[in-house]
Amino acid sequence: MSFKKEYLDLVLVPSGLLIMFAYHLFLLHRYLNRPHKTAMGFENFYREIWVEKIMQTNKRDEVNTALTVISSNTTAATTLASVALTLSSLIGAWLGGNANTVFTSDLIYGDTRPATISLKYICLLICFLLAFSCFVQSARHFVHANYLISTPDIDIAVEEVTRAVIRGGDFWSLGLRALYFALNLLLWFFGPIPMFVYSAVMVFLLHLLDSNTKPVPHHHKFQKNSHLRTSLIV
Fold it and tell me: Contacts by 79-82 with C-beta closer than 8 Å and gap 24+?
């Protein structure tokens, strides 16, 4: 039985996706159980302190600064949501037009059959739609936080504002992860070997970026509101 280049897709593509999924499951476990060891948990810790200080101030200038920060995050989330939706539309139009001859060249070492090309488009489309949904949810929570912070003369629990800000940040991170997976699937169009290499390199880089070695300052909010972080993913 001779070896066919199509067999590479059956081995390298699932292996690359398995590496990505395994790492993110590890990251999720670490984020839920030891958040101070992750960059996301470390950032959320300072978001909690930031919200607490903003809710305690009576200075209008500081409140306006906080609203500007929230608005900047909202703008960034809506921009990336628009980009993800635009790319999804382009992929859908390309897939509907059956313009699959571009990636069927003999230079691509892998499975270039029309059915496989269509599968690549569908997987890529799913990732972009997932990214769009996450960025929309991120913008939604940041807008909600904006309303809570700017509401005058009403006592609003700090935990409510903190939950909205942290959830907005977490959905932002999920949207970025979906884009990472989309880039992984995009390289699959050029063959399973680039995709597998990208998966290994990306996991290595993400591990460096997602890990936190800085000590967390002792602060009562980190222990008191630790349930907020665990409620964002589950």
Answer: 80/131, 80/135, 80/175, 80/179, 81/131, 81/132, 81/135, 81/136, 81/139, 81/175
Provide the terminal-to-terminal Cα distance of the chain, rounded to the nearest Å. Answer: 48
Residues 8, 193: contact at Cβ < 8 Å? yes
Per-residue model confidence as pLDDT tens digits over 217-227: 665 444 444 44
Percent helix, strand, coil in the chain (nearest 5)?
80, 0, 20
Q: Give the number of other Cβ atoms within 10 Å of residue 43's Cβ.
A: 16
Residues with Cβ within 8 Å of residue 43, at least 6 apart in sequence: 169
Q: Which residue has the tokens 């999720």?
A: 28
38 phi and psi angles, rounded to 5 deg? -115, 155
- pLDDT of residue 233 exceeding 50, the answer is no
Convert the pLDDT of each residue in 76-127 to its tens digit.
999 999 999 888 888 777 766 655 555 555 667 777 777 888 888 889 989 9
Q: Per the structure block, which two tokens stand in for 200?
A: 């290994």
38 SS3 class: strand
Q: Helix 158-188 and helix 114-150: axis angle, to 10°?
A: 160
pTM, rounded to two decimals: 0.83
